[in-house]
Amino acid sequence: MGSTVEAGGIPGAPLRIGARMEGTIEPGVYQMSWRGLRLSECWRFSKGWILPIALLMKLSGKRGNHVWLPASQSEPPCPRDDLSAEALAHLDPEIEKLAGLGYSVISYKKVVRSLDPHVRDTGGFMALHHDGQRTLHVLYLHRAQEPPLPPELRTVNPFGVIVPEGGVAVVVVNHNNYFDEPALSRTIQLPGVGIEEIAARLERELGRARKPIRVFVSPEEAIRFADVRGSAAHARQIGRGLYVKVPPEEARRILYDAGLNPL
Question: How many domains is the chain partitioned into structurally?
């Protein structure tokens, strides 16, 4: 049985969701814990050959970067003009491809509450197909790296989503850096492909779907649904110990060090 929610601070009618997407997140600073990784994630992140090291890190409960959750507060929609010239220089070539694929940009976003000191710049956009059934997302990240890696890394990662009514979303990605949430999504990995190949795979999945595909009646509904789906995934990841909430005093220090307002 589903319900309705308001999401992301975007006005509109209550959003219809399925019960599997219900869940709340207490806003605050969280830290990734390898202890919460699934075995399938350890295998994929380690690319198999260093699986013993990944399993040791899982068993030891190694901690990773800090993040602010929910993500809708740390990475909210924003005007295009809020993105840097550098971010737009990487995103605009992808945007130019959208018209030929039947998509239009419906929102931009950037990280405004970053707790990773290595992140230099971010940006992204969400596009909706004219049939209202498919979304494409592109994220840009510029970060510094430690030796022996190259000092700077700039990546542009596209992914696409369709949502069967009452079912599990189909997500198409071009990398292996994702978490498994089988109750919410089925991920198809196409290593190294671009936005055109992802759009083509979405069209193929649309044609072979056994259930009706959800149609978003407006850009606002698509944006709010993506927000709720992301929060539902993070709520499940908190539930399995992948993200651990940081105590208030430590959270205030982390926010202060990041130049952010310690709430």
Answer: 1
Reference 228, options 55, 21, 45, 33; nearest CA is 21
Q: Residue 181 above 80 pLDDT?
A: yes
Q: Which long-range contacts (CB under 8 A, 24 or more apart) does 254-263 make?
A: 254/29, 254/66, 254/115, 255/29, 255/115, 258/114, 258/115, 258/117, 260/113, 260/115, 263/27
Is 164 domain-assigned? yes
Whole-angstrom Cα distance, residue 11 to residue 17? 16
Average pLDDT, the chain: 89
Give the predicted TM-score (pTM) of the model: 0.88
Range of the domain at 184: 76-243
5 in Cβ contact with 231 (< 8 Å) = no
pLDDT at residue 22, as a whole number: 63
Residue 9 confidence (pLDDT) above 80: no
The DSSP 8-state label assigned to residue 260 in this structure reads -
Cβ atoms within 10 A of the Cβ of 36, count? 18
Cis omega (within 30 of 0) for bond into 212: no
| pLDDT, tens digit (0-9, with 9 covering 90-100), for 225-236 | 999 999 999 999
Q: Are 123 and 154 in contact (CB under 8 A)?
A: no
Residue ranges of alpha helices (H) inside 146-218 are 195-208
